[in-house]
Structures are given as structure tokens and as C-alpha cells.
Amino acid sequence: KYSDLSLQTWREAAQYDLSFDERLRYAKALSDSDAHEDALGQLRIASSLSQDPEQQERLLRQRVETYRSSGRLGERIAQVSAETATAENRRLLALLFQANGETASASFAIDAARKLSPDHVPILIDAANIAEQLGRLNEAVEIIESLVIRDKRFQINHLRRLVGLHEKLGETDKALSASQDMIDANPTAPESYRLYARIALGAGENLKAEIMLRRAIIVAPRNVETRVTLASQLANKFKTGEAIELYWQAIRYENRLNARIDLIRQLVPLYARRGEIKKLIHRLEEFDLESADQNTTPLLIASVWTSVKDYEKARLVPKQLLAKAPRDIG
Q1: Cα dist. 142→120, 126, 149, 212 in Å?
Q2: In sequence order, what are the residues at sequence separation of 6 or more whose Cβ sits closer than 8 angstroms to the Cβ of residue 106?
Q3: Among candidates 119, 59, 125, which has minimal Cα distance to 98?
Q4: Cα separation of 248 and 228, whole Å?
Q5: pTM
Q6: How far apart are CA 107 and CA 95, in angstroms?
Q7: Which parts of the chain are beta strand (E)?
Q8: 315 Cβ partners below 8 Å, 6+ apart?
Q9: Burial state string for 257-281 with b = 16 or more CB within 10 A and e = fewer than 16
Q10: Measured between alpha carbons, how far is 28 from 2 in angstroms, rounded to an integer?
Q11: pLDDT digits (tens, 9 = 90+) for 11-43
Q12: What is the pLDDT of residues 62-114, one digit of tens each?
């Protein structure tokens, strides 16, 4: 809820030329304060200011939400239902039904909108949403596939959604194919390679996953997440040396202390596997000499001793740090 003072400030500001975004914010403030009719009035003004389809879409969604919060969905549904059918008002009717929890009726309305305007992208997006909500996943897949072709601007988003639908349907090969399409559409996005790798790992296709993770590192050399995922997979395959080096690269690129400590803890069992904990400590000490912030490395060393349950050595580290630079502590 907004305070009376806040609303008064908005009212005074509204006497001047508010932008489209400001009108929407003012309308939301009014609606949140139960001044729903005034909110709809501001949305009508905002409608005259909208300059592109994205703004019109935001306006439509906020109108539906205002009808919902005001308890007037039923009234508006009756009004729109009585209008001569157009693609625009059948879509609005579908959104009103959906907001009112009447998903089956929303489906009938959006189907009517599609018949009137079969290639209209926002209608197709709503149709896919409603189909998925009803559990008609194959229908949603078919609609999203058409969006991949028709809506090139947001092709990656549609492909990502297609991946998720195929995963829900248990169609791993199709999910991998859609992931590959994402990579082909934008080869410079590391997220697509990681998505492919995640699906491949879930399907037991470890080699495919490893290849994609290596490609992701080439695309985004400083990305920590990709290196850690690949290091984990290599560690599971007992490619210990390469896994260790990938973890060290991740530590160098990671700036957050807590995240570095977590990476060190993942390194500990790999060094322990070789009986080389002391080598890990020595390398951390070398890292300390290279580091710009040398006070963090003792904390990393302490995390190693804690991980191997040598609590006595872990307790000694803060004392050594204090003796080394007492003015930097606390």
C-alpha cells in the first residue's frame, strides 16, 4: 500500500507531462491503494503515449491485472464476450479468463483469436502459455516451433522454452537438438553450450557434455561456472590433473572470497586423492605472493586444514596472519 503522501506526490506530478513508464507506475500505485477506477484512467492516458508493441503489451497486461485486483474480471469478461469478435478482443478475453482461473475458457478464446490472426506473435505466445498450463505440451511445442520461425528477434528465447518443453516430455534428443539450434543461432553465448552440456550429462552423454563445456570456455574464457562444471566432470572421470588446473583457473577469475573458499574445498579431495595436501598448501602460498590481496590467502589455507579436519593447524592460521599484519586485522 502507498501512503497518502506518496499518492499526493503522484497526483501533483501527474499535472505535468508524465512519461509512459511513469503513468504505468502511477496507475499501479493507485491500484495498490484500491483506487482502481483512477488507475484505469491513468492507463487510458498511457495508451495515448505508447509508441511500440512492447509498451502496448505492458499496458495490456497491467489492465488485466487492474481488473483482477479490482474484482471486476467477471464484469469485463461479460463485456468483451458480447463484442463482435476480433483477434484483439478474443485475445483480451483469453487473458481475462486466464487471470480469472478459467483456463479452459481461455483456451477457446485464444483459439478464436488464432483463427482470426494465425501469424500474430503475441497471440501465439499466449496460446503456448495456455496450452502448457493445461498440460497440452505437444500443442505448446508445435506453437513454439512456429514462433522460432516467425519471431526471429526472440528466437533464442523461444528455443530455450522449446528445450524445456522437450525435457518435460522426456524427449532428450529433441531437447539436445533445440539446444544445438540455440548455439547455431548465437555461437557467442556460453549459456547455450552449458544448457546443452547439462542435458547431455542428464542423459549420460558425458563426452558430448565435455565437448560443449570446452567450447563454452573458448567462447567465454573468464567464465567461472563453465570451468567448475567441466572440472567436476573430469574429476569424476579421474582426470585429476586437468580438473585441478581448471579449478585453479576458476579461483584466479573468481573475486568473491566465499566462492574462492568453496572452490578450494572442491580441490581438497582431488589433492587428497593423490596424497598431496601439502602441495595444495604450497601452491596457495605461491598464490599469496601473486595475489593483490594477500590477507585472503591465509583464510583459504585455513579452509584446507578445516576440510581435512586438522583443526589445530586451521586455528594457527589467523594467529599467523595477526602476527604478520596486526593493523590489518579487525
Answers
A1: 15, 13, 11, 27
A2: 94, 95, 97, 98, 130
A3: 125
A4: 10
A5: 0.81
A6: 10
A7: none
A8: none
A9: eeebbebbebbbebbeeeeebeebb
A10: 10
A11: 878 777 889 999 999 999 999 888 999 999 999
A12: 999 999 999 999 999 999 999 999 999 999 999 999 999 999 999 999 999 99
Q: Tell me which of 330 and 317 has the higher pLDDT.
A: 317
The x, y and z cell numbers of residue 285, run together, are 602460498
CA 117 – CA 112 distance, rounded (Å): 9
- For residues 244 and 270, the answer to whether their CB atoms sit within 8 Å is yes
Give the residue carrying C-alpha cell 589455507.
301
Residue entry with cell 483469453: 94
Q: How many residues does the chain have?
A: 330
Residue 299 grid coordinates: 583464510
Which residues have C-beta within 8 Å of that of residue 278, sequence separation ≥ 6?
none
DSSP assignment of 154-200: GHHHHHHHHHHHHHHTT-HHHHHHHHHHHHHH-TT-HHHHHHHHHHH
Residue type, 96: L
Q: Which three cell numbers stand for residue 251?
A: 579461483
224: cell is: 567461472
Longest dimension (CA), the chain: 83
Q: Which amino acid is at 28?
A: K
Rounded mean pLDDT of 226-250? 94
Q: Give the DSSP per-residue string, 197-235.
A: HHHHHHTT-HHHHHHHHHHHHHHSTT-HHHHHHHHHHHH
Q: What span, in angstroms and rounded, lies between the C-alpha atoms of 66 and 222?
A: 45
Residues with Cβ within 8 Å of 158's Cβ and at least 6 positions away in sequence, in order, are 144, 147, 148, 151
Residue 250 host element (H or E): helix 240-253
Cβ atoms of residues 162 and 144 within 8 Å = yes
